[in-house]
Each structure stands twice: as C-alpha cells, then as structure tokens.
Here is the input.
Amino acid sequence: KALAPLAETRLDGAGRRCHSPTTLSELARLYQAHPEARLLAGGTDLALEVTQQHRRLETLIYLGNLPELRGVTVHADGIEIGAATPLADCAAALAADYPDFGILLQRFASLQIRNQGTLGGNIGNASPIGDSPPLLLALGARLLLRQGERLRELPLDDFFLDYRKTALEPGEFIQAVRVPRAHEGLVFRAFKVSKRLDDDISAVCAAFVLELEQDRIAAVRIAYGGMAATPKRASHCEQALLGQPWTRDSVERAVQALAEDFAPLSDFRASREYRLLTAQNLLRKCHLETTQPALATRVTAHV
Here is the structure.
C-alpha cells in the first residue's frame, strides 16, 4: 500500500504503454484519448489473450488504483456495484436479496478468480457463457456507462448486440451495475449446469424471475447463457407464461416455446440437443422447486 501511486502513472516499453489512473476523471480522459486501449481490471480473461493466443497488447489502462470503481452500496430500491468490484465482494449483498445468486457465485470459477475477477469485466467481455449476465438480465439490471464527462444508464437488455459485441461507444466504459432489490412476491431461481462443480464454464446457465398474483404469473423474465451468441432473454417462453396459471400445463407450453427462442450450437461442452433439453428441464425444475419445496436441490461449494 505504501507504494500505491499518488497520481496517474505511465509505463512505456518495447513500443507499448500502460496507464494507471487514480481518479474516474483521469480514466475517462485517458480512454477518450486512447479508445483502442484495453481496460485491465482483474485480468482473469484478458490475460488469456497473451498466454493462450499470444497477442500483443499495445495499450493498457489499469483500473486497480480507482477506489471509485470498487464497492457495493445497498439502497432502498437497488444495489449499486462498482464495475471493478471483485466478484467475491459482490456475493454477500447479492445473496442477501437473491440467495440463488450467492450460490451460483460460489461456483463461479475458483476462489482465486472470484477474488480477482470483477463483475464489470464479466459483463463487458460479452461472453455468451459468462455466469453473471443471465442472472442480471432476469433481474432487470441496468448499467451506468461513462464516456468523458457524459453518463448514461442503459438496461442490460440493450447492452449485448452480437457475439462479443456490445453497445459501448468508443471511449465509453462501465462505471457501475445497478440491480433492483428483491420485494415480496418475487421468485428468483438460477441454475448452472457444468461438467465439474468447481472451476468450470457453464454449458447452460439459466435464471428465472416470476411475480405471482393469485397463482397467476403477473410478470416474468427468463434469461439463459450458453444458448446463443450472447446472453439472452427467452421472449417467446416469457410470453407463453405471462398471465397464465403457474401450473405444469402452462410450463409445458412454455417449454416448447424455448425452441423458438434458441437454436444453440454444438461444441466440446455440449451438443445443441443437450443444451435445448437442459434449458427446458431447468424451467421444469424451477416450477417443481417453487410449487413443491421439498423437491428443491442445491449444490453448494463450501469456502
């Protein structure tokens, strides 16, 4: 800590450079001046481009000396998380409102990666198999984005455009993630399917948000990872459920609608057939767990 820089620093070598701003204003100015730069937070994903793909990263902007980008603030109506907050530091606040979010984060990669990797990085890299985006999509999270001195708020629904492509403009970065608080009557379930309990990437990740009024579905948001080029909501499935009774027959109609929402690819993690059937079965699981609690199963990692 005694060696922490007191002002913006810069390292140059072999034609490459790394900036280390200490205020949000410095970061905003630097990123506008160097929109081609790569933002380095936890580095758990970015470092793989060097170690596995042997890429040369010409310009880096390091975010580790920006306390304004770290931390969790719980308000009456929302949870605001700085984009550079390590995933391990997000867990308690999210789990307090959404226990399934806490359980999933216990299975996010490994403890070392959760201590280093950040929530903003997990969103910003726009991976179709990132674990947090499906949950945040289902919860209706919003992003606070900054470009220079301009701030704008964007629903996460509008952030992912295509494979590894987002709505971020040149020189714009994620400043914070805003998650609505839980409220009475809201049901939230999230499931991760992978080959190993620990340190594995999802084949399918699913999140379900329901609001029931007299056993009818008054509101519903369903999102999946691993099923498309981006994390994505299941709009046809949602429409099949909206206004319907929360019964097995309604669920079975919605299960069939998932085939209209997704045409997943086959890869070394899972075949397209496996992914679609798993996505359908996770909706069935959500229904069973919320209507017959004795059937609920949870696999947790003890840290």
About this structure: The first helix runs from residue 24 to 33. The first strand starts at residue 9 and ends at 13. The chain has ten helices and 15 strands. The mean pLDDT is 94.
